[in-house]
């Protein structure tokens, strides 16, 4: 039986890990390579690195960090941020990424998901979607959650999965940073719509939120979080032990 | 020296790093002379079977691999590299493999429950149907490894070394003599994966009967 995955997310800017609330107010943290090693040794099942750098210099630094991480960490690595072309896929895959996460890049160029899936396989293409309720409708947001695209989210996800996205990360802007639990309603809607793995993101405040997530929605494959792991509010080893005690299949 | 065969499919950087991490000397190469000179061979692979098999043949490396395997050199296929060791694949048609192991490659969808997501992607545990193979000497039954695949090796009970349960048993590792393969990615399977690679690097003639 496949194990439910726990995935720490590292936002990297200018070579450092950062984490904010509601996509703003970034606060600097540790070295990404050290943090990745730490999480891997604590039982993280996968890591996500988001490049939130704008400059070319920052991008070079980011690919150096990826290479260094691959030399030290031997669990799957998903890379996102600034992925706009198949050349961007190539750039991070060469540095040891296993999967590449597209968000705004797919919104700008809807053909990107299909092209990347043909070149690298669906298993390599992760669709990341920032979703917010607007008048009761799930809407896709772009540019790190700052811009309403007006697109209806479930339809957008379906379209991308049909085009070849092999996994979907659902980031609920409504619950992100609030620490009151994952957005179960939103996640259920996505799980009902697609047959590929779904990763829940946004809202985890404690261990019980993960237990509730996996119990409530069997279709969710993984839970992703950042600050609660970075600030050690939740230790991954404790989380996985508690999942195991609750009968949730987990890699110990 | 371990030769990772570079025949133009996938990025081999992680694999190279994983051998470096266990202190093994490794080279990524498409040079037949280097492959012949190596003590052990890794056949990696991601993507589609037909394309990979075609690239292997176009480069002439298929003949090098067959000759080295026949000479008794330890060969480990990983993921699609394992599937290429078998006789043929039914992935989008019917395509010849290297025929080093008896069995065929079929879609996972043929055997797993309808609601199972394809590809089989994530961490799943290993079960050993027979005696534990030396490849797994440093790990335990039930340990988890990382899988990403939509096809699996079927009709290969005689050479199955490990299976994993995805609503149906799927071949996780296979081998006969010096020819071995694992469907999962040891280079992405944490300490368990590195322990499997270490066991492969340490295999001696007596382990490969």
Alpha carbon gap, first and last residue of chain B? 22 Å
Give the proportion of residues in helices of chain A.
25-40%
Q: Determine the structural class of chain A based on helices, strands and strand pairing.
A: alpha/beta
As for the number of domains of chain A, it is 1
- What is the 3D form of chain B? globular
Work out the largest interface and the residue count of each chain. Answer: A-B, 30 and 32 residues
Strand tally of chain A: 12
Tally of DSSP helical segments of chain A: 10
User: If you average the pLDDT of chain B, what whole number results?
Assistant: 95
One letter per element, helices H and strands E, the order of chain A comes to: EEEHEHEHEHHEEEHEHEHEHH
Instruction: Give the class-level CATH name of chain B.
Output: Alpha Beta
* Total count of strands of chain B: 13
Q: Ends of chain A: how far apart?
A: 14 Å
Average pLDDT rating of chain A: 93
- State the CATH topology of chain B: Rossmann fold
What are the segments of chain B in which pLDDT stays under 50 over at least 5 consecutive residues?
none
């Amino acid at each position: 039986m496949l194990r439910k995955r726990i995935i720490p997310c590292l936002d990297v800017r200018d070579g450092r890990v950062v984490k904010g609330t509601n996509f703003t107010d970034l606060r600097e943290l540790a070295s990404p390579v050290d943090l990745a090693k730490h999480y891997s040794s604590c039982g993280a099942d996968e890591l996500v690195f988001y490049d939130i750098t704008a400059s070319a210099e920052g991008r070079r630094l980011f690919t150096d960090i990826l290479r260094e991480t691959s030399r030290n960490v031997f669990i799957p690595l998903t890379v996102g941020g600034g992925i706009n072309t198949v050349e961007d896929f190539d750039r991070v895959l060469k540095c040891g990424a296993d999967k590449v996460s597209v968000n705004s890049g797919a919104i700008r160029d809807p053909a990107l998901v299909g092209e990347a899936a043909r070149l690298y396989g669906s298993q390599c293409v992760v669709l990341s979607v920032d979703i917010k309720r607007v008048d009761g409708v799930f809407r896709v947001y772009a540019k790190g959650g700052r811009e309403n695209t007006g697109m209806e989210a479930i339809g957008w996800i379906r379209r991308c999965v049909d085009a070849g996205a092999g996994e979907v990360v659902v980031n609920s802007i409504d619950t992100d940073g609030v620490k009151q639990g994952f957005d179960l309603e939103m996640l259920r809607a996505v799980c009902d719509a697609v047959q590929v793995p779904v990763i829940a993101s946004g809202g985890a405040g404690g261990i019980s939120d993960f237990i509730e997530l996996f119990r409530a929605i069997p279709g969710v494959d993984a839970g992703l979080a950042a600050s609660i792991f970075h600030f050690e509010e939740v230790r991954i080893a404790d989380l996985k032990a508690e999942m195991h005690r609750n009968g949730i299949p987990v890699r110990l | 020296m371990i030769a990772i065969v570079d025949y133009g499919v996938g990025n081999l950087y992680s694999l190279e790093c994983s051998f470096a991490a266990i202190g093994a000397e490794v080279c990524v190469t498409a040079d037949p002379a280097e492959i012949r000179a190596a003590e052990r061979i890794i056949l990696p692979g991601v993507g589609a079977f037909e394309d990979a098999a075609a690239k292997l043949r176009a480069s002439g490396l298929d003949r090098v691999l067959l000759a080295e395997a026949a000479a008794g050199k330890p060969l480990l296929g990983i993921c699609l590299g394992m599937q290429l060791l078998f006789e043929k694949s039914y992935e989008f048609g019917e395509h010849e493999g290297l025929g080093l192991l008896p069995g065929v490659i079929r879609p996972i969808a043929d055997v797993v429950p309808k609601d199972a997501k394809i590809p089989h992607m994530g961490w799943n545990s290993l079960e050993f149907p027979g005696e534990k193979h030396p490849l797994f000497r440093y790990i335990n039954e039930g340990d988890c490894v990382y899988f990403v695949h939509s096809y699996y090796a079927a009709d290969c009970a005689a050479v199955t070394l490990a299976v994993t349960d995805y609503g149906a048993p799927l071949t996780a590792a296979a081998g006969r003599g010096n020819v071995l393969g694992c469907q999962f990615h040891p280079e992405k399977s944490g300490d368990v994966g590195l322990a499997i690679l270490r066991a492969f690097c340490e295999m001696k003639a007596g382990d490969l009967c």
